[in-house]
């Protein structure tokens, strides 16, 4: 167990922040760590938009489903898959391949994780904001995003006002497969469902009675931003 592993294992989403601002040198380090993430074929197809204008933050909070911490966090960053930069470098670049969409999503996700882990290692906290995809066209307009740029997620960062309990993850016996994909073990799933029920019932806020299986059923048995396919194609992604 070292500091890096301890930081990773203690991850929890932070939605309540103090009024303390993030020091400039720490913010720069966070961004440098984001930029150090792995990049497929060194394409470097991600961009980060730092949003500081209170009015813009308020609009994003509303567009993201009324997530007030977008306004109250010391920093709010929007992570984008970006192939417009490449078009500027090479006007004849062949874009629109689905593989490029995957690369953009993977590389940008890696960049975001680097940023959050760096922040957590310095005593900061944060939370991902997938809700910016609730209204992608309005986000595009608000942030002035050109074609071949897609906002994938936001990130609130700041000093935690409260440290919630860490949420129990799937056991490795369910997560890790040996040699070939294996069906889930019903007994192990039942034990995990019980663990999650106990966690939700005992945590200090937002108590509820639900298992992981029930939560997944509720989440995956409804529409999930069906407009994203058309939006992606409109921005030049996954057209072929």
From TrEMBL:
<keyword id="KW-0521">NADP</keyword>
<dbReference type="InterPro" id="IPR016446">
    <property type="entry name" value="Flavin_OxRdtase_Frp"/>
</dbReference>
<protein>
    <submittedName>
        <fullName>NADPH-dependent oxidoreductase</fullName>
    </submittedName>
</protein>
<dbReference type="InterPro" id="IPR029479">
    <property type="entry name" value="Nitroreductase"/>
</dbReference>
<dbReference type="Pfam" id="PF00881">
    <property type="entry name" value="Nitroreductase"/>
</dbReference>
<feature type="domain" description="Nitroreductase">
    <location>
        <begin position="8"/>
        <end position="159"/>
    </location>
</feature>
<dbReference type="InterPro" id="IPR000415">
    <property type="entry name" value="Nitroreductase-like"/>
</dbReference>
<comment type="similarity">
    <text>Belongs to the flavin oxidoreductase frp family.</text>
</comment>
<keyword id="KW-0288">FMN</keyword>
<keyword id="KW-0560">Oxidoreductase</keyword>
<keyword id="KW-0285">Flavoprotein</keyword>
